Amino acid sequence: MTPAEVIVEGLERVRESGLAVLDGLTPEQLGHRPTPDANPIGWLVWHLARVQDDHVADVAGAGQVYPAFAGRFALPYDDDAIGYGQSSAEVGAGTWDAALLAEYLVAVHERSVAHVATLAPADLDRVVDDRWDPPVTLGVRLVSVVNDDTQHVGQAAYVRGMLGL
Fold first, then answer.
1. Are 68 and 12 in contact (CB under 8 A)?
2. How far, CA to CA in Å, does 65 sit from each of 27, 108, 162?
3. I need a labelling partner for 63 at 20 to 30 A (CA). Which of 79, 81, 131, 161 fits?
């Protein structure tokens, strides 16, 4: 496998796991918070897709997928919000639809894979963020996206399990 194929495999697992977590859930189940400040399944899946959308669009120098979905989600967040730094009240303010979340997740996945599939191994060494020490390369950023998304989809699966589903 090439390095790009490894990253695509990671992204594919996020998509598959995200769709499995969402399968058959009602808006009430998607909004369930096991404790008052816990993240609900709907927010977790929205957030992991937003992070992937935002970060991959940035390194690709492309627009995000989300603007085509923002009005349909009708969330009480700014359209550029991706979930970082949101308060518990903000997290709990969203209402969620499994089909819309799945559609957005798939659209983000397709855009991400289309970009990553074009990368040569040497591309992964390109510095994409010099605000860190050491500076963040494209490879590190993409692995970070896969890692963050994997953690959040795992959290969503855990909450689903708590619901007995």
1. no
2. 23, 6, 31
3. 131
Q: Give pLDDT tens digits for 93-124.
A: 999 999 999 999 999 999 999 999 999 999 99
Residue with the two structure tokens 């007995």: 164
Q: Decide if 100 contacts 46 (C-beta within 8 A).
A: no
pLDDT, position 13: 98
What token pair was written down for 133?
Answer: 């020490």
pLDDT level of residue 58 (50, 70, 90 thresholds): very high
Task: Name the pTM for this structure.
Answer: 0.96
Sequence-separated (6 or more) residues with CB below 8 Å from residue 145: 51, 52, 55, 56, 112
